[in-house]
Amino acid sequence: MAAIMVYVLDFGAHFLIKGATMRTHTLYQGNALIFGTCICTLLLAAGCGLATPTWPGPNPDTKPTPTPAPAPVSTTEPLAAPGVAMPIPANLDDGGEFFVAANNAPPDTTVSITTNRSAPPGAPHTTTKNNIFLWVKHTYSNPVTFQAFPHTHYIINSAITCSVTQETFNGGSWIVTEHPAQIHGDYFDGMTIDFSGAASQFNVQPADTYWWVLGFDPKGALQC
Fold first, then answer.
1. How far apart are the C-alpha atoms of 139 and 118, rounded to whole Å?
2. Range of the domain at 147
3. What string of DSSP letters covers 88-110?
4. Are 117 and 134 in contact, with CB atoms under 8 Å apart?
5. Which segments in the chain show pLDDT lower than 50?
6. How many structural domains are present in the chain?
């Protein structure tokens, strides 16, 4: 009887140990499954669970490279006789010529003319509300007294309206604003514009810089 009880106790202990082992093994498998499920859930939430193709896109931190302004175009010419054309250098197909009035210039006088498509250093500020699209700088090698302001003639291929002005400055000091004496063409195909020049004496000095500043009203007529 004692032997039977010992056997029963041994069997019970073996069963308990085996059962505990089985439970431990089952619990380990269950924990592993839960842990693996959690990892997969986290990976899916992070977008890494499945191989989703990605395409390169614009870098939000990359700023577009600004287009540089066209370079100035310059020339230096002997001062022509009154009524003889002198060049206003074309810059992006906008340029023209000018004609000086009677004057007392020495024979060796030259004029330097520079056409700009954006305001260069030292350019004057417009006195109008127009959009400025051309800055023409001119300097003279000798003091000269002209009997009137130059007559300017422009060939414009930029898309501008017919409401155009030309301002004349000595440095930053405004002298006169002119409206076209003649204008032909339109917004789409370009135009020719003439400013007759103010009929008053115009004195220049070698130390000074003179400007013609052209602008247009964007609300102006498209057909001239």
1. 19
2. 73-216
3. EEEETTEEEEEE--SB---TT-E
4. yes
5. 1-51
6. 2
